[in-house]
Amino acid sequence: VVFFIYFFAIYPIFQSFSKEKSRILFNLFFSVITVTNTIGVFISLVQFYLLIGYRVFDYKGLLIRQGFVESRLFGILASPNYLSLISLIVIIFLVLKICSFEKVYRYISIVAIVLNFIYIVLSGSRTAFICMMIAAVIYSIVMFYQKGNIKSLFKVVLAIVVVLFSYKAVNFTSEQYLHYNKERLEVQDKKLENKDNNLSLERTDTSEENISNNRFAIWKSTASFVPKKPIFGYSGGNWYEIGKKNNPDEYIIKEHYLTHNGYLEILFYNGLAGFISMGIFVLSFFISMVKRIFRDKKEDLVNKDLLSIVIILMVILVSSLFL
């Protein structure tokens, strides 16, 4: 119901905005996200520096991890994957906007980029790393397509190398810091009754035998529910209660797992009605953006706002395969 109200009542309002008003809305929206997320990232990095890690119960009574626990910086959110992906979106926004900022704001933006980048590395999110590489490749392709010279291609390759080198450098430096504070971490492990060794940033919850971190089992279990309520699904808020009545022995019910796949989740929560409407919305939006890039190419324009939207959309689409 919320989807349909948004698509047919609220979304069309934005189409009536002028280009100037749309740009103001775009900048304001991502500026708020940038400020709030960077504050959260800063607090999370302080938790890592102080080697603070703990487990608490959320409002649903589920045990969640925060701070630096099990070789990952969860930080202030229960999911390091989501916080790291928002950090990546913040980096994309700032990198493509930084040239238009005044000098003081450029320095602040550089600090924000560095903080968010460090968090992505410490979060141990493989999804964020994959999305970071895809974002760099898309940026490379579009910039080379629009400028079409060897110089732009060299800059792009250099940018990708710098990203990889910086990722490894942050990882190595953090590992050394953890080894230096070995005794403090061992004390923390005992307090948390944590059997996993978080003296390094090596993930303790994955292995060659379980490379998906239980995702394959979760997806299979979720998919088994879909045929029973294919049209409108199980609802986003009450899926667990409804699923428990239908099949209490199913894997996601016994373990209380979320779907870990945005496409399957929409199909599970909202059925074909929600899945098809969302698919039409996203595809039409993406196609219109690509057409605009081709149109700008003919006019020798480089629209960085448009490029950032396309890259951010791709980050969301790719990360939704795993989250």
User: Which structural class do the helices and strands define?
Assistant: mainly alpha
Mean pLDDT: 82
Give the SSE string: HHEEEHHHHHHHHHH
For the biggest sheet, the summary is:
3 strands, antiparallel
How large is the share of residues in beta strands? under 5%
Record keyword descriptors for this entry.
323 residues, mainly alpha, 3-stranded antiparallel sheet, 12 helices, 3 strands
Give structural notes.
- The structure is a single chain.
- By secondary structure, this protein is mainly alpha-helical.
- Helix content is 69%, strand content 5%.
- α3 (80-97) packs parallel to α5 (126-147).
- It is globular, with a radius of gyration of 22 Å.
- The mean pLDDT is 82.
Secondary structure blueprint with pairings:
Blueprint: H1 2-15, H2 19-49, E1 53-57, E2 63-69, E3 72-75, H3 80-97, H4 103-123, H5 126-147, H6 150-180, H7 182-191, H8 215-223, H9 239-246, H10 251-255, H11 262-298, H12 304-319
Antiparallel strand pairs: 1-2, 2-3
In brief:
With 323 residues, this protein is mainly alpha-helical. Helices cover 69% and strands 5% of the residues.
